[in-house]
Amino acid sequence: MFFASDNAGPVHPKVMESLVKANADYAMPYGSDPIMGTVREQVREVFEAPEAAVYLVATGTAANSIILATQANPWETIFCSRIAHIHEDECGCPEFFTGGAKLTLVDAPDGKMDPDALKVAIEGEETRGVHGPQRGPVSITQATEKGTVYSLSELKTLINIAKSYGQKTHMDGARFTNALVSLGCSAAEMTWGVGIDAVSFGGTKNGLMGVEAVVLFDPDQAWEFELRRKRAAHLFSKHRFLSAQMQAYLTDDLWLELATKANTACARLTRGLKQTPDTKILFEPGANMIFAEWPRAGHQRLHDAGAQYYIYSGALEGDDPDEPLMARLVCDWSATDENIDRFIDLVKG
User: What InterPro entries does the database record attribute to this sequence (predicted)?
Assistant: First the structure.
């Protein structure tokens, strides 16, 4: 019963097999391995973007931060959700790699940025001439940090606002495939089709050991990204072990299969919790993440049985067994029906 995070789940066996195969011989370093050539074409095919520049890094923080450093000048501000990962969970990394660009936070009640709030935030900058930050890129997380998913029309609305002010757009796609499967759309439709300029195409949370793809739909930014990746110490020497993971991921649609399994598991868990007395789903799950609350007694039963997940508000220790505590639950590709049903039974008591 492990629902703490999808990045804590196991690596898929096909990915391990690909790593073993890549280890069988010599290969040129720094992305010159032949596997990377295949991966580059796989990614371009997935995104229907034959001219896109494609790079691999080991972490989502690196992918987001180096993209934003390529898009933003040090004297600009990046617009993002108030709960965006780049704000709350990356230790100032985007600010560091941009050389000092700041973040302007936009209200996002359910994890999705409010268009009116975004417009107000953008218009609030470039009002003080040389004394204030200039308008930089808009960063959108899909799926969001609350487990919700932007529709294509919602994405288009935000991006049209950004474009109307001449700003670039970035998508933090740590759970990109979970959102895509939920919407039933293509990668192209969810990115450049609505105006996204660059995307962090996540893999670590969806069955890989540790690799994220950076996809730049404007190839003119490619060389600057390469230089920034090297300077940020994210150009891997034995790059083939990144390439091998991504190759397995994109072969025979494994990426879609794993996200579908995770989303299906989340839907089962959501149904069970909705049928449980005194349990409240706080945001309608759009992919593979749930925020819910139920009484402390249920949390205590789960804790005693070895379940692992994060309690986001309140404390497990307390005198009132009926006090509701908020939890975050994330399903990965390996979640089983048996463990989900056992979890729900323990919540019920």
Answer: ArAA_b-elim_lyase/Thr_aldolase, PyrdxlP-dep_Trfase, PyrdxlP-dep_Trfase_major, PyrdxlP-dep_Trfase_small
| The CATH number, out of the four listed (3.90.1150.10, 3.30.70.20, 3.40.1190.20, 3.90.1140.10), of the domain defined by the range 259-348 | 3.90.1150.10
pLDDT of residue 313: 86
- Model pTM score: 0.95
3-state SS, the chain, equals CECCCHHHCCCCHHHHHHHHHHCCCCCCCCCCCHHHHHHHHHHHHHHCCCCCEEEEECCHHHHHHHHHHHHCCCCEEEEEECCCHHHHCCCCHHHHHHCCCEEEEECCCCCCCCHHHHHHHHHCCCCCHHHCCEEEEEEEECCCCCCCCCCHHHHHHHHHHHHHCCCCEEEEECCHHHHHHHHCCCCCCCCCCCCCCEEEECCHHHCCCCCEEEEECCHHHHHHHHHHHHHCCCCCCCCHHHHHHHHHHHHHHHHHHHHHHHHHHHHHHHHHHHCCCCCEECCCCCCCEEEEEEEHHHHHHHHHCCCECEEEECCCCCCCCCCEEEEEEECCCCCCHHHHHHHHHHHHC
Instruction: Quote the CA–CA distance of 64 and 92 in Å, as a whole number.
Output: 12
11-254: CATH topology: Aspartate Aminotransferase; domain 2 (3.40.640)
Residues 198-232: tens digit of each pLDDT: 999 999 999 999 999 999 999 999 999 999 999 99
- 144-202, pLDDT tens digit by residue? 999 999 999 999 999 999 999 999 999 999 999 999 999 999 999 999 999 999 999 99
Angle between helices 254-274 and 240-250 (to 10 degrees): 70
Backbone torsion region of residue 253, taken as left when φ is above 0, otherwise alpha when ψ lies between -120 and 50, otherwise beta: left
